[in-house]
Amino acid sequence: MRSQAFISFVAFLLLSCNSKPSPTFDEANGVGNRYAQGFSIRTIGNAKLVEVTYPFQGATSGYSYLLVPRGGDVPHHDEKTKVIFVPVESIVCTSTTHIPLLDYLGETDKLVGFPTTDYISSKKMRQSIDSGKVVELGVDKGLNLERLAMLKPGVVMGYTMSGDYGQFRKIESLGIPVVINAEYLEQHPLGRAEWIKFMALFFGKERVADSVFTVIENNYQQAKQLVDNTDSLPGVLSGIVYGDAWFLPGGQNYAAKLFKDSGCEYLWADTESNGFLQLSFETVYEKAHNADLWIGTGTYKSLAEIAAADRRYTDFQPFQKKQVYNYDARQGAKGGNEFLELGYLRPDLIVRDLIRIAHPELLPDHELYFHRKLE
Question: According to DSSP H, which parts of 121-252 are helical?
């Protein structure tokens, strides 16, 4: 599970891959992903071959899963392809970003285990947790394999930042299949949302996923159209200092794309990085001290906290004009950040928030969902 301290900011800057294959189409059905490039689906007989083509940053190969209907014949496949019988009856997830996928597919009750349940914000899932239906499993190398084995989930959905498959190999030695979800590597916000189609494959909910995604896509594009012809592009600063460096999104980063689609001039949009930049305070100040907006301030919850952390922050124009916003408006019952949980699936809500902040006249009735102004 991603920690909610440093990652509460870096999650907004998560690396996108340098080069990814083009979306692969289902040759049998003529259906393909519209934005997601990290997985493909192909029909083989009565089964579906699902390939996660870029499972982690720098990967040179991916993982293949053959999803076979229960009771059906298993088509011929190579030895590296893992066979999973679907629909699965239970699942263990390892990232809060997987939780909304289950909720929106109507499969909330299928979650039986999670690393640290306090991080989960979903009200539906919290009801399941509070009723004892979701078992706490421990994080990373501290994962309780004995407890996991007792659950016997149909599948464990994991993610990896480095390609270290050691812990997943231990899980598979228990006879539990592991599938890798690489949503965080998608550069387009709608690409990340489209991974709901990946989750849906394991529950036979493809039509539901397509309907959900279409609504999100339409909402996003309709919001984007509001600012497509605007001449006023407020300058945006993002991030804060950690250690000796100011961390902020690179110009090709997912966050930078959201700023652009919201009618903002992200001040580092011309940089080539699709990860995050690490700059000196002085470099950031020189370029952004007259910014119009400051969006994304890590764990700082007020202007007073920001000023107490470093008085130099108070010299920035958005601080002086109280145009500072953070994405912590919604907290779960145990303190989890809903933005970090639901944001991948609902970029339409994020872009509408940002338009409301940058161009309030275009969405006068929109109430900020994930974001709030710091006082």
Answer: 123-130, 145-151, 166-172, 189-193, 196-201, 206-227
299 vs 28: which has the higher pLDDT:
299
Task: Measure the CA–CA gap between 24 and 269, rounded to whole angstroms.
Answer: 29
Is 125 in contact with 108 (CB distance < 8 Å)? yes
Contact (Cβ atoms closer than 8 angstroms) between residue 180 and residue 76: no
CA-based nearest residue to 224, from 249, 200, 188: 188
DSSP state at residue 143: -
Task: Give the list of residues 6+ apart from residue 153 with CB closer than 8 angstroms, or none.
Answer: 88, 90, 91, 92, 112, 113, 176
Question: For the chain, what is the mean pLDDT?
Answer: 92
Given the structure tokens 């007989």, which residue do they identify? 45
Residue entry with tokens 């997912």:
254
**DSSP letter (8 states) at residue 200:** H
pLDDT confidence bin for 81, thresholds 50/70/90: very high
The whole-angstrom separation of Cα 352 and Cα 262 is: 7
Class of the CATH domain delimited by 224-373? alpha beta
Instruction: Please answer whether residues 134 and 125 qualify as being in contact, where contact means their C-beta atoms are separated by less than 8 angstroms.
Output: yes
Q: What's the pLDDT score for residue 142?
A: 84
CB atoms within 10 A of CB 305: 14
Mean pLDDT of 64-72: 96
Q: In this model, does residue 214 exceed pLDDT 70?
A: yes
pTM of the model: 0.91
For residues 304-324, give the mean pLDDT.
98
